[in-house]
Amino acid sequence: MAAASPLSPEELLLPKSGPGKAEALEEELEEDDELDETLSERLWGLTEMFPESVRTAAGATFDVSLSVAQRMYRFSRAALWIGTTSFMILVLPVVFETEKLQMEQQQQLQQRQILLGPTTGLSGSMPGALPPLSGKI
Asked: Which of 1, 29, 44, 69 is the most exposed place for a label (fewest CB within 10 A)?
């Protein structure tokens, strides 16, 4: 068997019939490049390969999806507004009053420590109660 000689890339690409055929092929490719078609025109052309029922169903699905997304957006916006304002009106005043009471208690404890000494502030006795008696009863 005779070994086949390796072919150059040009020989692989050119048709067997000769260079005239290759020039015609190149001219045809150039003509295809000259066709100016927008993306929307190409997509519209692709829709023609699907049956009308599939196109109608896809359009209806898109419309329903868009409608649902818009409704969910409007609902979430309203729910967020209602939740935020309700929190500010109902919960924040309670938080502020609790913080105010804690601050007042802290100030009373500090005043008692200053007036009566450091041990009374740490004893944990109730305000207004008598101090514990030392000795036996």
From this structure: 1
